[in-house]
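U., I forgot to send this yesterday:
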Amino acid sequence: MAPIQLVAATWEPNIPVPSELGARHQQFAESFAVIVDGVEDWDAQTPVAEWNARGVVAHLVGWLPGVLAAYADVVLKDAPDVRVDPAAAWDARAADVQRILMTQRRPSAP
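Result:
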């Protein structure tokens, strides 16, 4: 099966996704966006000594493409550069994943 390329607004995906997954992702993405939008210092330390604020966003934006490619055969388009605009990178990545979750076909009833 060829990977799904997220470069257009619609496509015909083949992967069943439980309906609640889209709602759960949207809730998380919106909650995290509120935090991201409030960040004033992207180099600020987080409670985990090895991470700063920008690094947390870079991690979330960066690991999703690999997970989706490996487990769902989905290829995401590039997000804006986290080093330049972490909030824009998060917003773009979250919107792409949400679009996938909301347009996937639902599993058939047993």
